[in-house]
Amino acid sequence: MKKLVLVLVFMTALAQAQKPKVWIYSDMSDKTIQGKDHGTANDPDDISGMAGYLLMANMFDTRGIVIASTHRSEHKTSGNQADWANTFFGEAYKKDVVQLNKNIGGFPSTINFVQSCIKESAEKYDSTKKYSILKNYNTVELLLKEAEKSNDIINVLCWGSLTEPAILVNYCLTNKRNDILDKLRFIAHWTNSSLHQGTIEQPWKVANCNEDRAACEYLKEKALKGFITYYECGAIGQHGIVSGSQKGLEYFDQFKKSNLGKIFTEGKFVHNSVDHSDSATFWVLLGNWGVSLNDIASNGTNFIEVEQKNENQFMLYSKIIHNELLRRSNAAVSK
């Protein structure tokens, strides 16, 4: 019996070690906070994206999720967004995870959220500054500490502004902590595109780069010079996964049987489908859903023909992706 227990512990540890480690920076916030983005302070697409991620959470080793990493003035006095997320997502996940583990397995018992250090200040990256200490940037320091103790690559999924990743990279280069940068892999959604929002002449004119262009340009420069690994997805989530999805409430109402599926559908339902475009960052990380990291440059570049090819691939796989999410949503309520 003792030997069997040791074997099971070893197999569990091995399975966990094989899962990609993930850290998420999101501009997500409670969509009841009024603002100018679809009537709320921040685009609620990340809410749908996060629900989708939680339905896939057994595929990842989630090390941290930072939310409200945004520059919107509404957040200077809005409530604690970690408290909101830990209730909004936490309770839904807690209700669904029992059956998810019974029917699929490998899901962590809980997923926790922390509020971004820039949520209230709306601070933007200062390209003239050396960030030699992280005293005022606790959620940047949290990722630093996670990387310090990790023996594996941490995949930093960037769903919004690049301010916090830029501060961390600056800190590491200022303090000659290249060992930390060697353990980080940045995967960004739509911080560059010549096809959508941006143009060939101005590919940076997209939402997640306009939020803090200085941070965006700094990371792109460091990636091009080889200091960091940075995968630019472009708009392939929006114009591949989302545009290629099934359409209509008849299909998406099926998700509402589970708590996470309901959040997925209702987070941002527009144009007859769910907008969860940031999810491209974790689907490319999984690598077997049409587009993988091998299909994207690791130096921050995003050539138009590459983005178009990857967009087309995700378009082809989109219905399969959504059916997998639906399968998991159903598994969350299947006895």
Question: Could you walk me through the main structural features you see in this protein, from its secondary elements to its overall organization?
Answer:
The protein has 335 residues and is α/β, with parallel strands linked by helices. It starts with a helix and ends with a helix. It has helices at residues 2-18, 45-55, 81-103, 138-149, 163-174, 178-181, 207-210, 213-224, 236-242, 249-252, 259-267, 280-286, 304-331; strands at 21-25, 34-37, 61-67, 114-115, 154-158, 184-188, 229-232, 269-270, 273-274. It contains 13 helices and nine strands. The longest helix has 28 residues, at 304-331. The chain has a single domain, classed as Inosine-uridine Nucleoside N-ribohydrolase, Chain A (Alpha-Beta Complex), CATH 3.90.245.10.
Any chance you could write out the topology, listing elements then pairs?
Blueprint: H1 2-18, E1 21-25, E2 34-37, H2 45-55, E3 61-67, H3 81-103, E4 114-115, H4 138-149, E5 154-158, H5 163-174, H6 178-181, E6 184-188, H7 207-210, H8 213-224, E7 229-232, H9 236-242, H10 249-252, H11 259-267, E8 269-270, E9 273-274, H12 280-286, H13 304-331
Parallel strand pairs: 1-3, 1-5, 3-4, 5-6, 6-7
Antiparallel strand pairs: 8-9
Helix pairs in contact: 2-11, 4-5, 5-8, 9-13
